[in-house]
Every structure is written in C-alpha cells, then in structure tokens.
Design goal:
five-stranded antiparallel β-sheet, 5 helices, 208 residues, 39% strand, 10 strands, alpha+beta, single chain
Amino acid sequence: MKTYNTVLAGGQAEITEKKSRFIANIFPVSTEEEAFERLEEIRKKYWDARHNCWAYVLGGNPASERMSDDGEPAGTAGKPILEVIRGRGLTDVLIVVTRYFGGTLLGTGGLVRAYTSAAAEGIEHSKIITRIFGSKLHIVVDYADWGRIQYTLGKRGISPEECSYTDKVELDLLVPEDEVEGLKKEVMEGTNGQALIEKVEECWFEKK
C-alpha cells in the first residue's frame, strides 16, 4: 500500500537554552518554491534574529532534501533539523528554527541538542497525518442489499464519504489501492452482481 506521513497543519514551539531562544515553525509544503516562500516569510517576521536555520523534505522514492545552518557551525543546525524530519518519517514538510542569541556560546553539542529539541517540539505542536493512495468509488445498490454492503465496509474499516437515499442507495468511498479489487468483488458477490460500481478517480486521501 502506498502511504506517506506529512503535516496537515503546521505548528510552532519555542525552547530556551542558556538564554538563547530557539523558535521552531513547521509548514506543509509541496514544492521547493513554496518552501522558500515560507522561509522568506520567517526571515521577514524574525528580521532581527541571528540565525534562521532550516531543512525540508519533499516527495519520495527518492525524496528531495535540503538544509541550511545559516551561519551556525557546520552540521549543528540544518542537519539535526533534517534528522528530526527523517526520524518521524515525514515528507512535504519544512522546518525553520530561528535563534536569538542569548550571549552564551553553547558549543557544537549544545547547538545540535537545541536545534533537535526545538524541531521535535515544533512537530509535537503540529497535526501529522497519513495519506494513502487509492481510488474513489461510486457504488449504487438496492435497499435489500444495503445491510450486507454496510457489513462489508465495516469489516474493512471503510466509511462512506457521501451517502444518498433515493430509489436506491448511492455512496462514494475512498479505498486504498490494495483493497479496491477485493472490495469490488465482495460488493458484487453480496448483491448477486446487481451493484453498479464506478471508479471516479485515483487519488491520495487522508487515513482516518
């Protein structure tokens, strides 16, 4: 089954380390252009900050990854942020961690820990979702068969997106790619071949 984890709604978090403030902002992004637009927004918002360090991951197989230490010692900011994204298995996400220097040097180890903690805390304040690749199906069945169809859907953990009741029952379903053929077979068997099944489109949708 094709799936990926991403951010539906970005969040923000702040930590303090030896009087330095680390402010993490998380954004869902789908293109490099969008990622740099969000980065520029942060730079303008925190124009007086010493560093705006960042990393993003886009797409998959393979993913596109970029990062920046933005003036911090090499490997102490961008890479730790990127490792947090990788560790959570996320894609299509940008994390920017802004640092306001507090007057005390943290050392390379301290910087790595601070940027890692800020990025992780930001993700904790974001809404993470799983997207699944599959098909939207439109199904029409007789009322006499509706009970069996409800049982079949319940067994598979699939809930109709829309359902209407006229002279027949019509429903729209979002079905994972690896379940489409099995579901269609069960529906046809459960209605003695009388159901009408139409594949509306292939799409990505949120796992519920």
